[in-house]
Design brief:
Helix content: 25-40%
Distance between the termini: 119 Å
Low-confidence stretches: 1-54
Pfam families: DUF3152
Number of helices: 5
CATH architecture of one domain: 3-Layer(aba) Sandwich
Mean pLDDT: 83
Radius of gyration: 34 Å
Shape: globular
Protein name: DUF3152 domain-containing protein
Order of helices and strands: HEEEEEHEEHEEHHEE
CATH topology of one domain: Collagenase (Catalytic Domain)
Structural class: alpha/beta
CATH class of one domain: Alpha Beta
Number of strands: 11
Length: 247
C-alpha cells in the first residue's frame, strides 16, 4: 500500500515538474519570425527616390547663383577693357572662389585671348559693372539658361548667349569621352571656347589629322582626328581653322 502511494506521489511530482517546464518554455520562446519586408527603390532617407546624380555631382541645383567677390588685376596689354563676373549655382557643390580663380588663370594667360594685344580683361563682382557673366551651372539649369537664348544643349554641352557664358557642370567635372587629354585641358578649352564666342569668334574645323584642334572647334562633340588643344594662341601665334558654316 505504501509502495503504491509512493509511486502515485512520485508520478504526480513528475507531472507537475513537466507542466512547469512546458509553461516556462512558452514564456521564453522567441516570437514567430515576421515576414521579410518587400524590396523597394533606394531612397535618400527622406522617403523619396534617391536624388539623381551623375558622376558624384547634382544634376540639378537651386537655380540661384553666388558671385565671386573681389576684383582681379587688369590682364592684357592693349585694347578695350572687357569686364566679367563669375558665379556658381548654389547646390552645385562647387566653390565659387576656386572656380573664379581657375577662370582668372585661364583668361589671364598669354595664350588666351589677351594674346592678341588688342584686348584687356578684368573680373569684377558687381553685375552692373560686368560686360558678361561666366556661369557654372548644373546640367538642368544650364539647359534652361541656354534655352533662354534659343539654344538646345540637352543638358550636355556648355553654351554662350549674349552676355552669358554658361559652363555645364557635367562637362566641368567629367570632360567628354575619348578627349585624350587631362581634365584640366578640357576645362581650359571650354572656358576659352565659350568666352571666344562672347568675343565674336565662330566655330572652326579641324585642319587635319594629328594637328592641334582650334580652340573654336567644337571639341566636346569630337576631335575629328585633331589633337586636343585648349588655347587660341599656340607658340605665340593665333591658331585657327576654317570657319564652319551653319553652326
Amino acid at each position: 500500500m505504501r509502495r503504491r502511494l509512493r509511486r502515485a506521489v512520485l508520478l504526480f511530482a513528475l507531472l507537475a515538474v513537466g507542466g512547469a517546464a512546458v509553461g516556462l518554455t512558452g514564456l521564453v520562446q522567441p516570437p514567430a519570425r515576421q515576414p521579410a519586408a518587400s524590396r523597394g527603390h533606394l531612397t535618400d532617407g527622406s522617403g523619396a527616390g534617391a536624388h539623381p546624380e551623375r558622376g558624384g555631382y547634382p544634376a540639378e541645383g537651386t537655380g540661384s547663383f553666388a558671385a565671386a567677390d573681389g576684383r582681379s588685376p587688369v590682364r592684357g596689354y592693349e585694347g578695350p577693357l572687357r569686364r566679367y563676373r563669375v558665379v556658381v549655382e548654389q547646390g552645385a557643390g562647387q566653390d565659387v572662389d576656386a572656380f573664379a580663380a581657375t577662370v582668372d588663370d585661364v583668361l589671364g594667360d598669354r595664350r588666351s585671348w589677351i594674346g592678341s594685344d588688342q584686348l584687356r580683361i578684368q573680373r569684377v563682382p558687381e553685375e552692373a559693372a560686368a560686360d558678361f557673366t561666366i556661369y557654372l551651372a548644373t546640367p538642368a539649369t544650364s539647359e534652361r539658361l541656354c534655352a533662354e537664348g534659343g539654344l538646345s544643349t540637352e543638358g550636355y554641352t556648355s553654351c554662350r548667349i549674349p552676355g552669358r557664358v554658361i559652363i555645364n557642370l557635367a562637362r566641368w567635372m567629367d570632360s567628354v569621352p575619348d578627349y585624350g587629354a587631362p581634365l584640366v585641358v578640357y576645362r581650359t578649352y571650354v572656358i576659352n571656347h565659350e568666352v571666344g564666342h562672347e568675343f565674336g569668334e565662330e566655330h572652326q574645323a579641324c585642319p587635319g589629322p594629328g594637328e592641334p584642334a582650334p580652340v573654336m572647334q567644337q571639341q566636346t562633340y569630337g576631335l575629328d582626328g585633331c589633337v586636343a588643344n585648349a588655347w587660341p594662341y599656340v607658340d605665340g601665334q593665333r591658331y585657327a581653322g576654317e570657319l564652319v558654316d551653319g553652326i
